[in-house]
Amino acid sequence: MRILVTGAAGFVGSRLSKVLLERGDQVLGLDNLNDYYDLSLKERHLADLRPHPGFSFTKTDLCDAPAVAKQIASFAPQAIAHLAAMAAVRYSVQHPLIYGHVNVQGTMNLLDAARPLCDSLGSPPRCVIASTGSVYGSSTPVPFKEDAPADRPLAPYPASKRAMELMAHSYHHLWHFPTTILRFFNVYGPHGRPDMMPWQWSAQILKDQELTLYDGGKLKRDWTYVDDIVAGFVSALDKPLDFEIINLGCGRPVDNLQIISILESLWGKKARRKDIPAPPSEPKITYADVTKARKLLGYDPKTPVEQGLKHFVTWLQAEHLLP
Ligand SMILES: NC(=O)c1ccc[n+]([C@@H]2O[C@H](COP(=O)([O-])OP(=O)(O)OC[C@H]3O[C@@H](n4cnc5c(N)ncnc54)[C@H](O)[C@@H]3O)[C@@H](O)[C@H]2O)c1
């Protein structure tokens, strides 16, 4: 299949691209290579993909609508895997405007650029779009089910993702793109983002720095290993659905104290902790009900967090990414 992967230089987009290339798909990676985190990490991801004959890459900003349209017209993707975004809840509290710009308008630019393909390909490309479990906020009963309203987001990041979901529905409704929206829950693993907790806390443990813990470490997160997420994403690409929103989580929330204790034993070093109250952008728990993903996609998250964090730490060590 000819697949446009947006965010291909990022954490999940690069892992997805690799799996698609290895099974013989043709991938055009699109990414603006922004410096939200160390750009050398994104360059490493691309270096991993470039040897594949089926891979090509364009440095394009989703916010540049004509440039996006040009790429889509010349590649004519049969499927669009949309992962490019400004991610991260906390950064969105400090920089709200960019989240509307990239996650809402940028997604519209992408979908709008794909509209002419409905005529030229004879059928619209299938779209699989990465959203987030943080759209459920703090008032949704656990485990989170896809039919919950998700209309009380706690920060600009989940609000922008929910707006993106709604906009994608309107494009599906009017122009008939088969659309699957995947709500990821706390993805981690090798090639992970340096702003996320497993990486931050590993760095702080190793440097003997105090790590900041919200609400005494009682917050629970449904950590989901990257290979499980990628397997779910590939199934969604292979099985176009009319319009569905589907959780991709692990379904086993773990509190932050436990994550720290696993990291302490993996690094062989104790953490120094500073407890502070959780900010209003942080829900007490994220917890995916993955029944729908199992049923519609054959999704089967296999990796317990102890094992996934072990793979992550082994990778950080092998790549010499921490002192
Ligand atoms: N990692 C998680 O825990 C998690 C959880 C829920 C949802 N998600 C979603 O999954 C997707 C991938 O997340 P990730 O963790 O790989 O993040 P990432 O930051 O590593 O990847 C996103 C990529 O998008 C690119 N990008 C950002 N703005 C762009 C723009 N204007 N034009 C083109 N490219 C742009 C970035 O350069 C980056 O390479 C995102 O949509 C994110 O919201 C991730």
Give a quick set of tags describing it.
globular, 323 residues, 7-stranded parallel β-sheet, two-stranded parallel sheet, binds nicotinamide-adenine-dinucleotide, Rossmann fold, 12 helices
Give a quick summary of the entry:
The protein has helices spanning 11-22, 39-49, 65-75, 89-94, 96-114, 117-120, 156-175, 197-206, 226-238, 256-267, 291-297, 305-318; strands at 2-6, 26-31, 55-59, 79-82, 126-132, 179-184, 187-188, 210-214, 220-221, 224-225, 243-248, 254-255, 272-276. The chain has 323 residues and is an alpha/beta fold.
N-to-C order of helices and strands: EHEHEHEHHHEHEEHEEEHEEHEHH
The CATH architecture designation of the domain at 2-186 and 226-249 and 288-302 is: 3-Layer(aba) Sandwich
Provide the residue-averaged pLDDT: 97
Summed up, the helix count is 12
What gyration radius follows from the Cα positions, in whole Å? Answer: 19 Å
Distance between the termini: 41 Å
Query: Strand tally, please?
Result: 13
CATH fold call of the domain at 2-186 and 226-249 and 288-302: Rossmann fold
Low-confidence stretches: none
CATH uppermost class of the domain at 2-186 and 226-249 and 288-302? Alpha Beta
Helix content: 40-55%
Instruction: Summarize the main sheet.
Output: 7 strands, parallel
